[in-house]
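Lay summary. Proteins are chains of building blocks that fold into shapes, and those shapes determine what they do. In this project we predict the shape from the chain. Here is one chain we studied, written as its sequence of building blocks.
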Amino acid sequence: MPRIVADWLADHVELPADLTTEQLAAALVRVGLEEEEIHPAAVTGPLVVGRVLELTAEPQKNGKTINWCRVDVGPEHNDDDGARGIVCGAHNFGVGDLVAVSLPGTVLPGGFEIAARKTYGHVSDGMICSVRELGIGDDHDGILVLTRAGFDAADLRPGQDAVALLGLGDEVLEINVTPDRGYAFSYRGVAREYSHATGAAFTDRGLAEALPVPPPAATPDGFVVEVDDRAPIDGQTGCDRFVTRIVRGIDPAAPTPAWMKRRLEGSGMRSISLTVDVTNYVMLDLGQPLHAYDSAEVAAPVVVRRARTGERLTTLDDVDRSLDAEDLLITDSPDGARGSRVLGLAGVMGGASSEVSSATTDVLVEAAHFDQVSVARTARRHRLPSEAAKRFERGVDPRLPAVAAQRVVDLLVELGGGTADHAVSDLDVTTSPAPITLDVTLPGRTAGVPYARDQVVDVLRTIGGTVDEAATGSLEVTPPSWRPDLTEPATLVEEVVRIAGYDQIPSVLPAARGGRGLTAEQRTRRSVARALAEAGLVEVLTYPFVGPADLDALGLPADDERRTALRLANPLADDRPLMRTNLLVTLLEAARRNVARGLEDVSVFEIGLVTRPTAGAPPAPQLPVGVRPGPEELAALAAATPAQPRRVAGVLAGHADPAGWWGPGRQADWADALEAARLVADVVGARVVVTNDPDHLPWHPGRTARIALADAPGTTVGHAGELHPKVVEKLGLPARTAAFELDLSALVDAAGDAPVESVPVSAFPAAKEDLAFVVDGDVPAEEVRAAIVAGAGPLLEDVTLFDVFTGEQVGEGKKSLAYSLRLRATERTLGAEDVRAVRDGVVAATAERVGAVLRG
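And here is the predicted shape, written in a compact code that computers can read:
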């Protein structure tokens, strides 16, 4: 995000002398530039200019030599003898040098507080500072000698405030710029916005007439530049303007002046060398990225083209990069081979082969305009979010290159002693912004504020637009060249509302229209979440991205349909490029993370979407942007979109009932998972049946319930039970961890939209009957229960399994299942013959269906 140094901003717009950083931030917020952070002053306390009066080298026993210095820090800070004694270990300064001295009480960057202390046999009453200690550079080997850093000795005196001199007492405002407002990545743009917010006088230094000497026109002998872009993006060539200028005879040892260093470093950029600093300074000032080449290392013509197969480039960050066919390149032509050598990635970063070095005297300056999409794709492809790329991908003013290049030339001539070469090239095929027809009443109708016609016109002209008022009910508005985001009437409406003031828009809560509200499915989802939470589970939200390793952890076979997953073209993480096909895979990861952090008793659930692509489905069409797709295109898009059913899943690990003084507690098991699944079905209102499923990973083969719709027994809607021991071990979960997952969309569809019918409450007493049946050991209790329900008839109100017994008494391979039946009639009290009839029906049905024998 851009950082704003107030005195630099004042070069473009008139600022009040008493303006605080908070006031500046508030003004910019009013026009949509949000405050990100206010960075406090880097140094506080008495940091002053000092003159070294004496320097005595004193070798130490440890082999190190220190300097005992007497430093004049001004009459208000000196001791009685006119100086202060300071110990210093650096050796790059001498008697007579002017240095920065932090006196006791100074707080340097990092909270380093200076105090008088005894060291090496002396009391050091302060510290002579390096640039690193002051936080204005990385050099820690030597002392900052002010005259070598670009300060004029005539302007310095001992005791002078060095905090103000070095710009270390300034607060810096960092602002947040939205992607559509790239012009605000410059002092020119931010100053314009401050002017809009306050009415302060603004001077546009991006215009040719603002320069002392206007940019010269192109000359026949200018450095030859060609654009050979055979792969235009979105119908636009990758480069529509390219300006070059040459400055010769620059002193390579010329330092960057202190005022420029201070401004650059305050804006978040490190000072490198005069030539590079000048290009960065103009970029921050106007918003036009620039690049400086060592002129001796570049051979005409420069060709702007796309990369070829197998080409590579070592960029300025010393990384060797393999180039892509979509990368737009800057190339030159050594040995007459046109465009054969790659100099840099256009609009992103230059190459190492032609960079400016400490011996460069002749500089070729490039100021170009590149396509936003091309630069954005290249920067992301190579993971190079450079300062230039940040600006180009958001849109740069195509009228700026010549002005910015002239600013660079003027500064290199002034500060580096160079001479501007008369040769100029300016390849320019830019086009003017297209005019937009705006209904003058649209801003008012959109915002609910009665903007007058004159007010709308004034705002649009204030932001730099050209307005033709010929038509009665509409305006023809040509946006300014620095606002590529203004492309349709809605964007102009936003500008009117923004500049006129967001605070003018009334805060009105719209009235809800009758019949609106949550759909039946939304109400059902909320009821399911509430019921599970009331049952003791905690709702969580997990990201839907998984990788092959996550599916491997579930033990899914290679041919399992849950391995057919949608792969993302641009995943957030390389190891998770797939969209989940089941909810349990991400929910188990959440449970594992909690257990790994010491929370061993876990009961969590999630309601979310899964993606279930169909093998062989047609690929999604690449639809154009900026236009509404036609019916056929929308139909093709819908056909290629995979199904995304909504699921509900839960994981229960550790204790279901906690241990305490009352007892050892109870471990969660498969029955808890099945009960939670039944609860979901009951809340939805869908009738389900439960059977055993011995082969459905990641569940246990003998403790897994298959849940199907009662009205369509072949339609599986989920599973519940204990997880497979190998899965539990691989994920690091507690033993006997249980889980469930249900297709909530299928359950909702099965329940339908029919209203819930109330069940009449009988006023007559219930009759109870307990029956125990002996069945084969592999007969599921659910099948016995279903037989009981079928045989009992309409008098059965409830049936509950209350005991399971195995042993010699029931025989080998057998088990006893005991059920409690509650019987009731709605119109009479049941008699003994009614209970006997139900009992006989139940015994007959269980014997016929599951081979049960009534236990005596």
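What the prediction tells us: The CA atoms of residues 243 and 426 lie 4 Å apart.
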